[in-house]
Predict the structure.
Amino acid sequence: MNSLTRGWRGSRPLFTLYLPTMPFVLFALFPLYFMFVTSFKKNAELYDVTSVPFWIGRGVTFGHYELLSKDTFFWSWFVNSLMVSVAASLISVVLGILAAYPLARLKFPGAESFGVAIFITYLVPPSLLFLPLSTVVNRLGLSDSLWALVVTYPTFLVPFCTWLLMGYFRTVPKEIEECAMLDGCNRLQTLIRILLPVAVPGVICAALFAFTLSWNEFLYSLVFVSPAELKTLTVGVFSELIRGDIYYWGALMAGACIGSFPIVIAYVFFLDYYVSGLTAGAVK
């Protein structure tokens, strides 16, 4: 009886945790698996309607990756996306911190309404904003440059970063800031030396979210940047590997695989911070 009880206790996680979550894990990973398998298939198998699309049956090829490297500006697109995403995320997080702190800590008329209004601006579709933003970009002389994206991405990144950081700042006890102010710190010193070190998970969560949105952004990059070598990864792969009714499926999947690496690496290293920052900010 005891051995049966111990056996059940040992296998209970298998039936109560692993098996119930397995369908969701497979569902989430299937697109990545399909991209990975397709990127290594030969064209003869790829365009054969009788072949099974879920595994490689006629040998592996690296030709699609060679096509990306030799016949396109793929690595320029990759670097462009990385630079724009890092710069836009850094600017947005800094502005979000400066906006979220007074809304979360200072008491002034309309603070709550102003915080809600900031979040509502995040809900405005980018397809409505790019028309007035195109006028701003042209007047600033930033058309067909990466600076056009660095300037416009914060328009949808700052509201979300501000809203997320407002929630996280409210989870930090005010008493530690009040003690610092009694010791002689002013507001700015309290923010930099006391609040931000405590709110690192929230800041990292906001930075990850901003980086992900910037990396995947498509519309602004398509509208504001035209030269092929200055395109970002999402637009470059789409515009150069889909020509009319010809789809370079192998190269498209290869580009998608490589393009997903920075996001995967970022979340692998900072997943705990991301979950902590998102859940703490969500309950306030």
Notes: Residues 2-39 form the longest helix (38 residues). The mean pLDDT is 85.
